[in-house]
Each structure stands twice: as structure tokens, then as C-alpha cells.
């Protein structure tokens, strides 16, 4: 794209937008005009940043758009409106972008878990690793009692905090590539070995009936967190046509959105683990609740997320909130 020609064509519109933004009061017609110019200028800014991210014109235009946005929205966006936009557009769009990578992470996790479980079940010297008496106590008492030995509310809070911390680490340290992979691998191995021991002791039903109600959503949330972390890592490794720092910054901003959203998702799975998993209800009810929660997540991510993605939402902050590049000498 010829930046100079692009500027020459659209400069009058930007000047008019700035002129309207500096006025104290606008008529209804002028407000409509300003809104149209604001939308056009936002599109122009995206095109300029795609062609020349560090262009001083982009910084100047971003400032003009910022003034116009402040004029249109007053002191700031209504908190209720901002919250609605976050949960209806920004968050589902971020989840939607990760859908395929989430499934890939899930598949790798399952493979590692099955391999670890098979190893534990068939290991010829398992007694040297975990004595028979300890395995029997784990299968008959410890595993099931883990979900009911503490009050439901405190247990739900504990698992929520623990899982949210794991998810946050996957995202925050995702740039390393190693950290999320290590966390996922360790957790996959732990679950696999636990399952192998439970099967070896003839307690397979107890394992699955106490894992599935909350585990369906809980583990999916961890998969999403791992996918988010690995996506940040990949933005650093293969930034495409963007500068490496620009790609890393954009992906990190949008995927921090994922970390915030997962706090809510893990709160829901924590409530299920604290109140549904140990409940004396029929197995199909407990597993059905867990499956419904998981189905709700995917419906949210795929339906609202696809709609938001088609509208151009990526989960990143807008140009005004995120700021723009500034050249320094």
C-alpha cells in the first residue's frame, strides 16, 4: 500500500473528525457524521498499522481517534456496557481463536495420561514405587474422601484458587514455551498414574465417577490455558509479517483476556467439584451436570465467539485502550 497516497486521500476526513472532536457541542447531524468518520478512521488506522506499524502517522491518527472516542462516549464507557461487551464479544472471540489449539492440547494430554496409566497398571515392580497397602488405601479411601473430607464451600474455594493459579501460569509464562508444556505434562502424568492405580485396584468406577462431573470442564479450562500460553510462544517464534515484539504484545494482550475469563470458568468448575462431585446423587445426574457445563462452554465459545470473530473482534484491546506505537530517537 502506498502510504503517502493513502494519507493524501483520507487526510480531509481525519481533519474533519478532529475538528468535530474539539467542539463542545454537536448537532444530531454532526454527531452522526462524527460517528461515521470515527468508524472510517479506525479502519484506516488498522490498515496503516498493518502496512507500517511504527509509522508516526499511525500514532497521530490514533490520538485523533482517541479524542473522538472520548467525545462520543463522554467520561468513559459505561461499566455495564464494558462488562457486557467483554462477555458477549471479547472473551468468546478469544476462546474461539483457540478452539483448534485447545483440541490439539487436549489430545496430547489424553495420550500422555493414557500412557502413564498403562505404565502404572502394567509396571512389573509397581510395589517398589507404591506399596500394595498404600495403593489399596488410596483406592478404597483416599481418592474418594478427597472430595468430601472438607466442607463444600471451602473445598470449592481451594480447588478454584489452585486451578486458577495453574491456568494463570500457563498464560503468563507461555512465552517460554516450556512452562505450559511442563505443567500440562506433569498434570497429565499425575492423572494417568492415579487412574492406573485405581484400575489396578479394581476401583475404576470410583475413579471415573468422581473425576468426570467436574473434570470435564476443569481440564478443558486447563487445556485452554495451555493453548493460550503456547500461542503466545508461537507469536514470538513465528510472528509472520509483524515485528516480533508487536506480534508478542498483541497476542499477550488478547490472551490475558483468556486468563481473566478462565477465572470465571474455573469458579464454575470449582463449584461443581465442591458441591456436585461429592453429592449423594445418582451418577447420571452428577455426570450430566458436568457435561452440561462443558456443553455450555463450547456453545458459548463457538456461537458467540464465531459471531464476534466474523465482526472482526480478536480479544485484543481496541486501538484507543491499547495505545499505539511511538517512535523515539
From TrEMBL:
The chain crosses the membrane at residues 100-121, 216-234, 255-272, 284-302. This is Putative membrane protein SpoIIM required for sporulation. It comes from the Bacteria. The keyword Membrane applies. Keywords: Membrane, Transmembrane, Transmembrane helix. Coiled coil: none annotated. The keyword Transmembrane applies.
Amino acid at each position: 500500500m502506498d502510504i503517502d497516497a493513502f494519507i493524501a486521500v483520507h487526510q480531509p476526513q481525519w481533519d474533519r473528525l478532529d475538528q468535530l472532536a474539539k467542539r463542545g457541542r454537536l448537532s444530531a447531524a454532526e454527531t452522526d457524521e462524527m460517528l461515521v468518520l470515527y468508524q472510517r478512521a479506525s479502519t484506516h488506522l488498522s490498515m496503516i498499522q498493518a502496512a507500517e506499524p511504527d509509522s508516526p502517522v499511525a500514532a497521530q491518527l490514533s490520538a485523533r481517534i482517541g479524542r473522538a472516542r472520548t467525545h462520543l462516549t463522554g467520561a468513559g464507557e459505561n461499566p455495564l456496557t464494558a462488562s457486557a461487551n467483554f462477555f458477549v464479544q471479547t472473551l468468546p472471540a478469544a476462546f474461539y481463536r483457540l478452539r483448534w489449539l485447545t483440541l490439539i492440547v487436549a489430545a496430547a494430554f489424553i495420550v500422555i495420561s493414557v500412557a502413564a496409566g498403562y505404565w502404572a497398571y502394567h509396571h512389573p515392580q509397581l510395589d517398589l514405587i507404591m506399596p500394595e497397602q498404600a495403593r489399596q488405601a488410596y483406592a478404597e479411601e483416599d481418592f474418594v474422601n478427597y472430595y468430601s473430607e472438607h466442607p463444600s464451600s471451602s473445598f470449592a474455594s481451594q480447588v478454584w484458587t489452585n486451578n486458577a493459579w495453574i491456568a494463570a501460569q500457563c498464560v503468563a509464562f507461555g512465552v517460554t514455551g516450556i512452562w505450559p508444556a511442563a505443567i500440562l505434562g506433569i498434570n497429565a502424568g499425575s492423572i494417568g498414574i492415579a487412574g492406573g492405580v485405581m484400575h489396578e485396584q479394581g476401583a475404576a468406577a470410583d475413579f471415573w465417577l468422581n473425576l468426570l462431573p467436574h473434570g470435564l470442564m476443569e481440564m478443558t479450562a486447563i487445556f485452554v490455558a495451555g493453548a493460550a500460553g503456547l500461542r503466545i510462544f508461537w507469536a514470538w517464534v513465528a510472528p509472520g509479517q509483524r515485528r516480533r515484539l508487536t506480534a508478542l504484545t498483541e497476542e499477550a494482550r488478547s490472551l490475558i483476556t483468556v486468563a481473566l475469563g478462565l477465572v470465571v470458568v474455573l469458579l464454575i468448575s470449582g463449584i461443581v467439584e465442591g458441591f456436585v462431585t461429592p453429592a449423594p446423587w445418582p451418577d447420571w445426574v452428577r455426570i450430566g451436570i458436568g457435561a452440561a457445563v462443558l456443553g455450555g462452554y463450547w456453545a458459548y465459545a463457538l456461537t458467540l465467539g464465531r459471531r464476534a470473530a466474523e465482526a472482526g473482534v480478536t480479544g485484543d484491546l481496541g486501538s484507543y485502550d491499547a495505545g499505539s506505537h511511538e517512535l523515539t530517537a
